Automatic annotation (TrEMBL):
Residues 123-213 form the Fungal lipase-type domain. Keywords: Hydrolase. GO terms for molecular function: hydrolase activity. GO terms for biological process: lipid metabolic process. PANTHER family: ALPHA/BETA-HYDROLASES SUPERFAMILY PROTEIN (PTHR31479), ALPHA_BETA-HYDROLASES SUPERFAMILY PROTEIN (PTHR31479:SF2). It comes from Anisodus acutangulus. This is Fungal lipase-type domain-containing protein. Pfam families: Lipase_3.
């Protein structure tokens, strides 16, 4: 196998195939291979695993579009490295593209000292973001517009997602179920979490905190119940649902590293870098 300029060449007997593959899709080349043992109490480890499982969803759809199966499939290492198995894929009913996956933590019995009871099972439900290439782009873009209009929860993709979450929680309990996502997928995960709990991210919390400091918290509490998209829709005389970002609390992690370009700043690969410079803070408002 050789790589160069994004081209991966594989040789099998007399059969030779050229596949245009980004190195960012290959776990052994860009994944967090440095994590050979996971400390689930370590925030950086949990973040790296969650990001890798989301990347696995991206690559699942890539494998599907390119019809890469078996030894050609690029997705499995993104979860197998962390002792997860693919429990179920989530498919959009409109474009038949994979937008999410349910992973089950499935180590050997020796990992738990011979015990594998239900309390030690972990499930991660991961959602990918917008794909700019292939069959999924049009549908993903439509859903991005739904987010701006605070209407993601009204889409059939979200209905598929929340049904999957409810199934796992009802079957295995909620204590060891994680929701994670990137970009559009992060909105999907947050909406699913809000729906289950009934209960813009950096700017939202920092602004709330500043307003509390200067004594304008009550005014700010009312003002932040609206998103910019919601204000525009209301001005046009259209009804708008509750903004997605309205949540009572969050552990917010900000990447303080300076990106070289927008794609890097928004990309998922940054979240498993071993020397990542981050700032984490818990925000809670009543």
């Amino acid at each position: 196998m050789a790589t160069g300029n994004g081209i991966l060449t594989t040789t099998k007997g007399q059969e030779k195939q050229n596949m245009s593959i980004s190195e960012g899709e290959i776990f052994d080349l860009c994944g967090p291979v440095h994590l050979t043992a996971i400390d689930w109490e370590n925030v950086a480890h949990r973040r790296s695993v969650a990001a890798s499982l989301v990347q696995g969803v991206y690559i699942l759809e890539r494998d599907k579009q390119e019809k890469w199966q078996g030894s050609q499939a690029l997705a499995p290492p993104w979860w197998k490295h962390f002792l997860f198995e693919l429990y179920r894929v989530l498919v959009d009913d409109v474009d038949s593209c994979i937008f999410g996956a349910i992973y089950k933590f499935a180590p050997s019995k020796s990992f738990f000292g011979g015990s594998k009871d239900k309390s030690q099972q972990r499930f991660v439900i991961a959602f990918r973001g917008t794909l700019t290439k292939g069959d999924a782009f049009t549908r993903d873009l439509q859903l991005d517009v739904h987010i701006i209009r605070n209407g993601l929860h009204r889409t059939s993709r979200f209905e598929t997602a929340i049904q999957a979450v409810r199934h796992v929680v009802a079957t295995y309990g909620s204590s060891d179920v994680w929701l994670t996502g990137h970009s559009l997928g992060a909105a999907m995960a947050m909406q699913a979490g809000k729906t289950m709990a009934k209960t813009e991210y950096i700017g939202y919390f920092e602004h709330r905190e500043k307003m509390d400091t200067v004594g304008a918290g009550v005014i700010e509490k009312v003002a932040t119940q609206h998103s910019l998209g919601g204000l525009v829709l209301n001005f046009m005389g259209k009804e708008c649902d509750e903004p997605l970002h309205l949540i009572p609390s969050a552990n917010l992690t900000v990447n303080l590293s300076t990106p070289t370009e927008f794609k890097e700043a928004h990309g998922i690969h940054q979240w498993w870098k071993p020397a990542l410079l981050v700032e984490s803070k818990k925000h809670q408002f009543t």
